[in-house]
Amino acid sequence: MPFIVGTPLPNPVPAEEHERCPVTAVLRRVGDKWTVLVVVLLGQRAHRFNELHRAIEDISQRMLTRTLRGLVEDGLVHREVFPTVPPSVQYSLTPLGRTLLEPLSALASWAVEHGDEIASARRPT
Amino acid sequence: MPFIVGTPLPNPVPAEEHERCPVTAVLRRVGDKWTVLVVVLLGQRAHRFNELHRAIEDISQRMLTRTLRGLVEDGLVHREVFPTVPPSVQYSLTPLGRTLLEPLSALASWAVEHGDEIASARRPT
DNA sequence: CCGTATCCATGCTGATACTG
DNA sequence: CAGTATCAGCATGGATACGG
C-alpha cells in the first residue's frame, strides 16, 4: 500500500506506513551524495575499485566503500573478487540494478528539463 | 552536461561538475524524509498547514514547515495567505510541481515492483 | 492557526593514517 | 589493490516551548 501511485492515501497517514513505504525508501537510498553517479558509471561497464576511485575525482576511499557496500547489500550491484596478487575486485550492476536505470533516466530527464526553473525560482531575476 | 542521460561522462568526473549536476540535486532534494509524501498529498488537492499536519501522523510542526519552505523556495509549491482571523495558509503544487509527479510515479512503480527484491537481498532467506 | 526559537541526538561525509 | 580504523565537522531530524 505505498504512496504516489494512484491509490488514495489513508488519512491520517500512519507513521509505520510511511516508514515502510518503498517509494520513500528508494528515494532515500538513491538520494545520497554518490550512489547515482556510481550506478551510472557501473551502468556503462563493470569497474574495479580503484577505477571508480579515479573516475570520480573527489570521492574518498571511505565513501566509495560505503556506497558500494550499500548497493551490494541491496542487490543492485554485484561484487566479484579475483584472487590474484595483488587482489582485484570487480563491481557491476545486477539485473535488478540495471532495471533501476530506466526510471532514473526519467527523473534525470525531468531534472535536465526543469533544473533551471528551480534555480531561477531560488534566485529570482 | 549532466549525468545519466545518454551522454558519456568525462573521466575523471570533475568535482565541480558533480556538485552542479541537476540529477543529483533533484534526487537529494526529494530524498529527504517528508518531501515526497507532502508533494503527493498536494498532488491530490490543495491543503492548509494544519490539514497537512493532521494528514501526516508523525511529522513535527518544525519539519512540516521546513519541508514546505524548501518546496516553495524551489518553485514546486505555491503558498497563499488568506488574511482571515485566525490566519489561514494554503499550499498547492505549482505547474512545475505537477510536472514532477510523472517521473516520480515512474520511480514509484519501480519501487513497488522491486521493493521486495531489495528487502530479500538485505535479509537473505 | 501558523508558525519560530532552542536544544539535542543521530547520521552523513571527509581527512588521515594504517593493513592483508 | 582494496580496503579498515579513527576522529571530527556539518546536516538532518525531533522535542519542547513560545509568539503574532
TrEMBL record, chains A, B:
It comes from the Bacteria. Gene3D superfamilies: Winged helix-like DNA-binding domain superfamily/Winged helix DNA-binding domain. InterPro entries: HTH_HxlR, WH-like_DNA-bd_sf, WH_DNA-bd_sf. Pfam families: HxlR. One of its GO terms (molecular function) is DNA binding. Residues 21-119 form the HTH hxlR-type domain. Keywords: DNA-binding, Transcription, Transcription regulation. This is Helix-turn-helix transcriptional regulator. It comes from Nocardiopsis eucommiae.
